[in-house]
Amino acid sequence: MLDKNRMPKHVAIIMDGNGRWAKKRNLPRVMGHNAGMQAMKEIVRRASDLGIKYLTVYAFSTENWKRSEEEITGIFRLLVKFVGLDLGELKEQNVRVRVFGDYSCIPARAKASMDEMLEETKDNTGLQFNIALNYGGRLDITRAVNHLAEKVRSGEITGEITEDMISRALYSGDENGDVPDPDVIIRTSGEERISNFLLWQAAYSEFVFTDVLWPDFTPEIFEQTLEQYQSRDRRFGGRK
Ligand code: FPP
Questions:
Q1: pLDDT above 80 for 199
Q2: Phi, psi (deg, nearest 5) at residue 22
Q3: What's residue 77's pLDDT?
Q4: Per residue, what are the HEC states of 143-186?
Q5: Can you tell me the distance from the alpha carbon of 42 to that of 210, in angstroms, rounded to the nearest whole number?
Q6: Of the residues 14, 18, 31, which should be mutated to test ligand 1's pocket, given the most ligand atoms within 8 Å of the CB?
Q7: Mean of pLDDT values over 135-152
Q8: Is the distance from CB of 232 to CB of 206 less than 8 angstroms?
Q9: SS3 60
Q10: What is the pLDDT of residue 234?
Q11: Distance 64 CA to ligand 1 centre (A)
Q12: CA–CA gap between residue 139 and residue 207 (Å, rounded)
């Protein structure tokens, strides 16, 4: 049973397996992403109902530009569709949406939808739903380092650079409300890799892997993965 008193503060998810889900059904890959978007919506709803404070999903990585133009266009069209259909519900649920990643270069309509969603939910105080979009962990760290280097050059930082300064310069830092590191990272579809997701932030995260393809990932399975997380003994490098 899920212990409501020991819920993770921050859950991060690598939503993998949309392509294989579509292939199994002889459908185009973008139909797999469409089904994946439906699954994502259900998980946002359940995370919000469970009182989880932060949910971060890997929607598009810095490496995903290598995919076919058709697939890339399809994914960004889905983003526009998501905002069109679900912004109202996100607002009702008091969900605040934020972005991790450099989304300035995504197609203009998708960027406009994203901006609208950020603006319209910015005063919400419930679940913070972070969408990693054109995100890469190395990009995140490189950007933070450049940001701090600039502060050294300008004289704003005079002493040593600390871990805390680096954390605060990441996408999960100051600019997005100082999101705590993920307690648990879930990856679906049987792959067991980090794939350039939240590299710095994952230092002490628990990993839960499942063979379920992302479009088949239900709120019930989500709760089971959280139970698995709760059964772990987290020591953060110390001893008990
Ligand atoms: C990985 O599956 C999934 C993605 C790269 C895209 C994730 C996108 C969504 C869930 C829907 C869109 C949502 C937003 C907010 C834009 P894969 O294609 O790598 O699957 P495969 O490994 O089976 O090929």
A1: yes
A2: -70, -45
A3: 97
A4: HHHHHHHHHHHHCCCCCCCCHHHHHHHCCCCHHHCCCCCCCEEE
A5: 18
A6: 18
A7: 98
A8: yes
A9: strand
A10: 74
A11: 9
A12: 22
Distances from the Cα of 115 to the Cαs of 108, 109, 183, in angstroms? 10, 10, 28
Is 239's pLDDT higher than 80? no
Residue 97, phi then psi, degrees to nearest 5:
-95, 140
Whole-number Å distance, alpha carbon 59 to ligand 1 midpoint, is 6
| Per-residue pLDDT band at 129 (split at 50, 70, 90) | very high
Helix, strand, coil share of the chain (percent; to 5)? 50, 15, 35
Atom 4 in ligand 1: residue holding the nearest Cα: 59
Place of tokens 């008990």: 240
19 Cα–ligand 1 center, Å: 7
| Residue ranges around ligand 1 (CB below 6 Å) | 15-20, 33, 36-37, 40, 59, 64, 75, 78-79, 82, 131, 189
Report how far residue 155's alpha carbon sits from residue 137's, in angstroms, rounded to the nearest whole number: 27
Q: Which amino acid is at 145?
A: V
**CA dist., res. 16 & res. 212, Å (int):** 9
pLDDT at 233 over 80: no
Q: Is 113 strand, coil or helix?
A: helix
pTM above threshold 0.90: yes
Query: Which atom of ligand 1 is closest in space to residue 20's alpha carbon?
Result: 23
